[in-house]
Structure formats: C-alpha cells, structure tokens
Design goal:
Elements lengths: L1 H10 L1 H26 L8 H6 L2 H18 L3 H21 L3 H39 L31
C-alpha cells in the first residue's frame, strides 16, 4: 500500500490529496460507527486496535486504492486488476467477520461515501481558492514603499587586489 501511495503522489497530486482525505474520513467515520455498535463505554476497550483488526477495514483501504488507481490511469488492464482485487477483498471480508453488516459498512459503504465526500471537499476548496486568486488579481497594484531608502554602495577602502587563483585539475 505504501508503494502505491508513493506512486500516486508522484503521478497525480490531486488524486493523492483526494485519497488521503478519503482515508482519513473513512477511518474516522468507520471508527465512530464501530464505537457506536460496540455498546460499551469507549474507555473500557482498546477500541482502535479492535477496529483495525476487522477484515472490512483493510478491504475498505483496497477499495479506496482501487478508486484512486482508476481515477489516475487510463489503461484497461490495471483498472480491471485493481477492481477485481478490491471486489474480492470486500467479498471475502464480509462473511468472515463477526458482524457481517459492520464489515460490509467498513468494506464498501463508508469508503465509497468517503471518496465522494473527499472529492466534494477538495472541489469546494479549489473553487474558493480560485475565487480568492481572482479577487486578488482584480485589485489594482498598490504603491510600493521601500523598507530602507536606497543608498550608494560603499566606497572601496583601499583593499589590496586579491591574488588570482591558479588553475585546478
């Protein structure tokens, strides 16, 4: 997964930012749903460890990586390969979990919603940044006031001429 993230960061920064945001959203929402489904106070159980050992969580990471690869490449074979890997990991994660409905949520529903939400968040942020840049460009340039007044360069003080260096290899 780390190599895929490095490849994606080198290949397409926008998709990498969307994937990173989706991973954070997916983890946060999945952990909140898992904590609510536990029915115990949060302080009694090492909640994060139990959440990360669920098979649906890793399958959700594969689903998000597949979406990022599909968004990045136009070649058919890599798209088919990552789609098959993501679907098979999600299909294997659901029946093997203690709570299949919770595993299905963390394997498919939460990552897909996180991918969509991350795209909406980044698009909204990009639009606001573009509007701010346009408003700054519309303003007339102000008068530049120098920090220090210009001075003449100092007069040489009778420094001896430097000895020229000899040629080196």
């Amino acid at each position: 997964m780390a190599l895929s993230l490095l490849w994606l960061a080198h290949r397409d920064q926008k998709v990498y930012a969307r994937l990173a945001t989706a991973l954070l959203l997916s983890g946060t929402v999945g952990l909140a749903v898992f904590a609510a489904a536990q029915g115990r106070p949060v302080g009694e159980v090492p909640l994060a460890r139990e959440y990360l050992t669920m098979p649906g969580v890793r399958a959700g990471w594969y689903v998000l990586m597949a979406l990022a690869v599909i968004a990045t490449t136009t070649k058919v074979r890599p798209r088919v390969a990552v789609t098959l890997i993501a679907l098979s990991s999600a299909a294997a994660a659901v029946p093997t979990a203690d709570r299949p409905w919770l595993s299905a949520l963390s394997a498919a529903a939460v990552p897909l919603l996180a991918w969509y939400a991350a795209g909406r968040l980044l698009t909204r942020e990009e639009k606001s940044r573009t509007a701010a840049d346009a408003s700054r460009a519309a303003e007339p340039p102000g008068h530049v006031v120098p920090f220090r007044p210009r001075t003449l360069p100092p007069e040489p003080r009778g420094v001896q001429d430097l000895v020229p260096l000899g040629r080196t290899g």
